[in-house]
Design brief:
With 219 residues, this protein is mainly α. Helices cover 78% and strands 0% of the residues. Bound molecules: fe (ii) ion (FE2) (2 copies).
Length: 219
């Protein structure tokens, strides 16, 4: 009696998994069809175009960041953090110049195209500053916002390096790699500043407020 039962069960589960597979295929087809975005008339058709579009995007992002960083430095209290931000302003200026060289190597004019992601990340940094009292807590917030920015830049330059490599843009690749290394270094510096002192100082006020507050969504 055991064998037929097992067989029936196997057949049933085979049938169920086959139905599930069919329905999954149908669903994913529907989802894909529903998500296909209509391309603009200016849409990139080749990797080289996507590469230059991405350069325009990060060029805008770096320039926009240059305007936002001094405000972050002014709002920071800890010397380590102020120095880290000021150092990164100088580094970012070099990165902008490096990007202009990368455009030149690609035979393109350096043009900035609004980067929605960087605009949002900088806006979030502004919100964090408004939501924190000056001192260690605001510093911890500035570090959090800055690290999100650095991670975005690391992802972007990582992609640009891959594109440059594929396209045989060897000189540009070396420049982009240099910037990628600087962004990674900035991220490490911020992590160290947070772990070495700022987060501990910021935590000193812990327990003063209602513990449930952190669990409440603010709108
Ligand atoms: Fe940068
Ligand atoms: Fe950066």
């Amino acid at each position: 009696m055991k064998t037929p039962t097992a067989k029936t069960k196997t057949d049933a589960s085979k049938s169920a998994s086959s139905k599930a597979a069919t329905s999954k295929t149908a669903t994913s087809k529907t989802v894909t069809a529903g998500r296909k975005v209509k391309a603009k008339s200016t849409a990139a058709e080749e990797l080289r175009e996507l590469y230059t579009d991405s350069l325009k995007d990060i060029y805008w992002a770096e320039k926009h960041l240059l305007k936002a960083l001094p405000k972050m430095a002014k709002n920071a209290t800890t010397e380590t953090l102020i120095n880290a931000i000021n150092d990164h302003i100088a580094v970012t200026e070099e990165q902008v110049a490096r990007l202009e060289r990368v455009f030149e190597l690609a035979g393109k004019k350096a043009v900035a195209k609004k980067c929605d992601a960087m605009e949002g990340l900088i806006k979030e940094g502004q919100d964090i500053m408004e939501s924190t009292e000056p001192g260690a807590v605001r510093d911890a917030g500035i570090i959090a916002a800055s690290q999100k920015i650095e991670h975005y830049e690391i992802a972007t330059y990582g992609t640009l390096c891959a594109f440059a490599k594929t396209l045989g843009e060897d000189e540009a690749l070396e420049l982009l790699k240099q910037t990628l290394a600087e962004e990674k270094e900035a991220d490490v510096t911020l992590t160290e500043a947070a772990y070495n002192s700022i987060n501990f100082e910021a935590a000193e006020g812990e327990g003063d407020e209602d513990e449930d507050e952190n669990m409440t969504e603010e709108n």
